[in-house]
């Protein structure tokens, strides 16, 4: 059985691989919003008022890791691309 941290790392890796396949998410791309990335990665949980928190948390972690760049920091509707 995988540990929680191993599962988180697997999800982060899946999100990065998804972003690598999207031209908008290239280091020079315009970036994509969290909802578009969530759909592309298949991470929608179908929780009407809470959907998005999982993907958003992964994106924040990847930003802190330096793997992802958040465009428009401090604003709502950020776009993300690979760093």
Can you offer a commentary on this structure?
This protein has 83 residues and is α+β, with helices and mostly antiparallel strands. Helices cover 46% and strands 12% of the residues. It is globular and about 40 Å long. The chain contains three helices and three strands. Strand 2 (68-71) and strand 3 (79-82) form a beta hairpin. The chain has helices spanning 4-20, 34-41, 53-65; strands at residues 32-33, 68-71, 79-82. It has a three-stranded antiparallel beta sheet with strand order 1-3-2.
The major sheet is characterized as: 3 strands, antiparallel
Tally of alpha and pi helices: 3
- How would you sum up the global shape? globular
Low-pLDDT segments, ≥5 res:
none
Mean pLDDT: 93
SS strand fraction: 5-15%
The strands making up the biggest β-sheet line up spatially as 1-3-2
Helix and strand composition category? alpha+beta
Output the helix-strand order: HEHHEE
Give the N-to-C terminal Cα separation. 32 Å
Oligomer: single chain
Fraction of residues in helices?
A: 40-55%
What is the tally of beta strands?
Answer: 3
Radius of gyration (CA) equals 12 Å
List the keywords.
single chain; 83 residues; alpha+beta; 3 strands; 46% helix
Q: What is the element layout, followed by pairings?
A:
Elements: H1 4-20, E1 32-33, H2 34-41, H3 53-65, E2 68-71, E3 79-82
Antiparallel strand pairs: 1-3, 2-3
Helix pairs in contact: 1-2, 1-3
Concise description?
With 83 residues, the chain is α+β, with helices and mostly antiparallel strands.
């Amino acid at each position: 059985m995988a540990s929680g941290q191993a599962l988180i790392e697997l999800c982060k890796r899946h999100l990065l691989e998804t972003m690598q396949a999207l031209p908008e998410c290239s280091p020079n791309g315009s970036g994509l919003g969290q909802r578009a990335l969530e759909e592309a990665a298949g991470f929608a949980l179908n929780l009407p008022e809470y959907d998005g928190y999982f993907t958003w948390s992964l994106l924040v972690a990847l930003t802190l890791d330096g793997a992802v760049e958040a465009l428009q920091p401090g604003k709502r509707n950020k776009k993300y691309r690979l760093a």
